[in-house]
Design goal:
Blueprint lengths: L1 H4 L9 H21 L2 E5 L2 E5 L1 H5 L13 H20 L3 H5 L2 H12 L2 E5 L9 H5 L4 H7 L12 H5 L5 E5 L17
Antiparallel strand pairs: 1-2, 3-4
Length: 186
Amino acid sequence: MLSDRLRLRRFKVPFTVTNAMRMAFFLVFISVSVTGVLTVTTSRGTFSKSLYDYVNPFHGLEIVAPGSLLEGTIHYLPFLVVLGLSVVTYRPFCYALCPVGLFTHWLEQIGLYRVTLLREPCVDCDLCVKNSLCPVVPEMLKETALRPDCFSCNRCSTACPKDALVYGIRRTVGSPKGKAGKKVAA
């Protein structure tokens, strides 16, 4: 929303690219974790580190007094980079690096609950795409099999004037009607 107010152009990186980056980083993370433990020696002692510690932007929310300029850069740079990228792209850390996001993406593919498009009431007005920053909505309208992570923010379904996007238990394809003739997620 900040980029809209500042009239900045947003970049939409294809999900296949971000998911490939996230998988590659996850494999590097696992291989580094299995092959050995990284250690850092400072004036305060020797500490175990993982590769994730160097790219985790949430460490930037910890207020610490770094011992040197290099320690301060390593500590705060990922946070500042993600903060800057989030102005021009949607959830850059979640889609490009986060190993938890990769795991939840796999779980979402088999999950019972999800936002689903009911094709019959949809009039292709694209209000759901315009009112939601989420990259899931355009992929959902294309009915692609593999879609980006949905954070269930519900912006797309509240923007739909025809209630064509619903959140609920996912049904098998081919059963567009539930009990008493009510439409349910397909």
